[in-house]
Description:
Blueprint: E1 2-6, E2 14-18, E3 28-37, H1 40-46, E4 56-57, E5 61-69, E6 81-84, E7 87-89, H2 95-98, E8 109-110, E9 122-126, E10 130-132, H3 139-142, H4 145-157, E11 166-170, H5 174-185, E12 189-194, H6 199-207, E13 212-215, H7 221-228, E14 234-239, H8 244-253, E15 254-262, H9 275-279, E16 283-286, H10 292-303, E17 313-318, H11 322-330, E18 336-340
Parallel strand pairs: 11-12, 11-14, 12-13, 14-15, 15-16, 17-18
Antiparallel strand pairs: 1-2, 1-4, 3-5, 3-9, 3-18, 5-6, 6-10, 7-8
Helix pairs in contact: 4-5, 4-10
Bound molecules: zinc ion (ZN) (2 copies).
Amino acid sequence: MKAVMKTAPGVGNIEVREINEPDPPPGHVKIAVQAAGICGTDIHIYYDEFRTRPPVVLGHEIAGQVVEVGADVTTIQPGQRVTTETYFSTCGTCPFCRSGRANLCPDRRSIGSAVDGGFARYVIVPARNVHALPDNVDYQAGALTEPLACVVHGALEMPRLAPGDLAVITGPGAIGLLTLQVVKAAGATAVLLGTDADESRLALGRELGADYALNIQREDAAAQIAALSEGLGADIVYECSGAGPAAQTLLELVRRGGQYAQIGLFGKPVAWTLDQVCYKELTVTGSNASVPSAWRKALRLMADGKVCTAPLVSGIYPLTEWRTAFDVFEQRTGIKTLLSPVE
Ligand SMILES: [Zn+2]
Ligand SMILES: [Zn+2]
């Protein structure tokens, strides 16, 4: 079968290779991939900024159909439409694994970087990781379950969000637009911030429920947020852009005693007036990938129609056109780009 692989360490070294079709060992499931999302991590893998164990098939945001199950698998049947969590293996014994935080396990091995992933016709995953897709979620929309689970973890499980909170989100890409929908589902008032380059994304944000979607190069976001909060500032701010200036802006927009949640990754050190964390007595949270509890919530939010991932899919490409798809992602001309092995 064809597979998009990181073939060796170093910049680049990604190519389509022909590899043997895998069989599921006991406790594992073979999924015929229908759609797999390209994520910032994949771009970091291209530039060798994220650790992999080559040769390895990339792709960790997967939706597909179960075609075969290994011995001892009783929870999943062939024919089911599914998505999968990404941790192929964790140690199971460290304090993080034992407290439900396997995302922090030092021995975590994930599909698409350490173990073969979903940019291929088939992928093998542990049965315990597999979730049925809700009936109202197609494969393309289902491929966004993984980023949604990361957002649920970073937006709801790490900070505390309550109905009536005023939330400000920077970065209206896929992660920001998912964060927007999650905080709306939790009952917050949501202000989405972007720049001139984001006009179409801000418009989509309005369609997806943003109470306000502002271009900070043309509109006075600080005045708008002050007007909404009796001059106090936002109760909680979510940085989803991974851009340094946005992180600094949010420190100014959050109220005293408020919360700052970092969801985007910068890929480098950024300037941040850390004194503001003291002066304002801010609670700062970060999040790393996802935990199983976040997957259950993500799937329920999609099943209930509270989060719509389909409108975020802006392009789908065959595996052989992975480079074009990576370029589209990097140039930020779309929102979410998918690969599909289905010709
Ligand atoms: Zn991802
Ligand atoms: Zn562990």
